[in-house]
Amino acid sequence: MSQVISHSPGRSALQGVREAIPLLGGYIPVALSFGLVASQAGFSTLEATAISALIYAGASQFLFVGMIAAGAPLWLVVAMTLLINVRHVVYGPNLAALLPRSRHWPWLMHGLTDQVFALALTRLPQLHDAKRFSWFMGASLLAWGAWVVGTAVGATAGEAFTARWPLLGEIMPFALPALFLTMVAPRFTDKRWAVAMGLTIMAALCLTLAGWGNVAIPLTAACGALCFYLVKFEKRRGEQ
Amino acid sequence: MSSALWLAVVISALGTLLIRVVPFLWMQRRLNSEAGINNMPQWLSILGPLMIAAVLGVSIVPVSPSAVSWIATAIGLSVTLWVWSRLRSLGWPVAAGVAVFGIVEVGVALM
């Protein structure tokens, strides 16, 4: 009986919600900024919120609004938006073996962002099979809800908000690197993984500083994978 | 927003959704199917954790890069790692890291 209760969908979804809370530290300030930027570019609160709810992909939304405001042709806006989001193509296959089959995936996968993917890939293997669907639903819906609400607040009161608490927008996003650090740290006990991950982190950092943040994730992960295949450490005698 | 602009939003949204959902469903159907594969390809299981490392590298850059924010980032990440090595959990190390990062940023701003 206790097994049944601990695997109830409601509890698993709540666990997902609880474990996705650190993501909000990064989501809310960026969503507020997007709402503010969109309203300054001439979009109404409803329009900015609809863009966040439907497209739901941070970097590409900023690009979308910026290009529209600059008067770019719509086909180019759509093409660039999809080009930035194409990195998501490898996220789904990585989670495919960890999640059960369900007719709800076509709409639930809307919530598969960089951050939700990272959290799911780390946590799902540690969860019982019966918990995984509800856990993913809870975590991804919280992140999506925070993004949509944050955009609406940013579009209506973003200017007043950032003027009143200017440092908050700089402090809260630190939750993201802190969270990702706790996700990659366990791999650093293995020398081969440590070298590949160290290289990936440093390369992504440098590309972002150089203004190439959008291509940094797929490009540096591919470099890290190449490094993982090329670098092999000889095992010491007696080591299995 | 004009109807053409709404159409651009809808096409971008549908395209992004398809990028997310089609590879997931394709892999799920191939896994354990008779004609498909039994396990995930090795390169994909290596690429996954490295994507998280790349997201970490991208997110390390502070919102407003300055000497103070870089120092606060280094201290915050060190504290996060230290708390994680003690507790091996996700929540508390993040809370401790954000708190210390915030203390350094606010402390310097008040000086």
| Chain pair sharing the greatest interface | A-B, 91 and 71 residues
Strand content bin of chain A? under 5%
Shape estimate of chain B: flat
Count of DSSP helices of chain A?
Answer: 13
**Residue-averaged pLDDT of chain B:** 88
Q: C-alpha Rg of chain B, in Å?
A: 21 Å
Shape, per Cα inertia axes of chain A: globular
As a percent range, the share of strand residues of chain B is: under 5%
Order of helices and strands of chain B: HHHH
The domain count of chain B comes to 2
- Quaternary state of this entry equals heterodimer
Alpha-carbon distance between the two ends of chain A: 42 Å
Count of discrete structural domains of chain A: 2
Radius of gyration of chain A: 20 Å
- Helix amount of chain A: over 70%
Q: State the order of secondary-structure elements of chain A, H for helix, E for strand.
A: HHHHHHHHHHHHH
Specify the biggest β-sheet of chain B. none
Strand element count of chain A: 0
Largest sheet of chain A: none
**Range of helix content of chain B:** over 70%
Mean pLDDT of chain A: 87
Overview features:
heterodimer; A: 240 residues; mainly alpha; 13 helices; 74% helix; 0% strand; B: 111 residues; 79% helix; flat
How would you explain this protein's 3D organization?
The complex is a heterodimer of chains A (240) and B (111). Chain A has 240 residues and is an all-alpha fold. In chain A, 74% of the residues lie in helices and 0% in strands. The longest helix of chain A has 36 residues. Chain B has 111 residues and is mainly alpha-helical. Chain B has two domains: 41 residues, no CATH class; 51 residues, no CATH class. Chain B starts with a helix and ends with a helix. The chains are: A mainly alpha (240), B mainly alpha (111). Chains A and B meet through helix 2, helix 3, helix 4, helix 5 and helix 6 of A and helix 1, helix 2, helix 3 and helix 4 of B.
